[in-house]
């Protein structure tokens, strides 16, 4: 679990990154979870955008992605989800 201080730190870092995935009408599926998991291993911190045509609730989408990838949900803000997962091979982010 992340502490409040760690989440603030990660939110600051996430400010500068662009969303690399979009969740649309089809919602969250196994293929997307696999791709998000691979991206988390490479980058540790990613931002995901939820499109207007997504039929699922944004909090449910965030929960499904976090559970499916084993990542920590940093924040859901507007239509953006921020996920963090410590990388096993490409560790770059040092949490406070």
From TrEMBL:
Pfam families: CRS1_YhbY (PF01985). The keyword RNA-binding applies. Residues 1-96 form the CRM domain. Keywords: RNA-binding. SUPFAM superfamilies: YhbY-like. Gene3D superfamilies: YhbY-like. The keyword DNA-binding does not apply. InterPro entries: RNA-binding_CRM, RNA-binding_domain, RNA-binding_YhbY, YhbY-like_sf. NCBIfam families: RNA_bind_YhbY. PANTHER family: RNA-BINDING PROTEIN YHBY. This is Ribosome assembly RNA-binding protein YhbY. It comes from Aciduricibacillus chroicocephali.
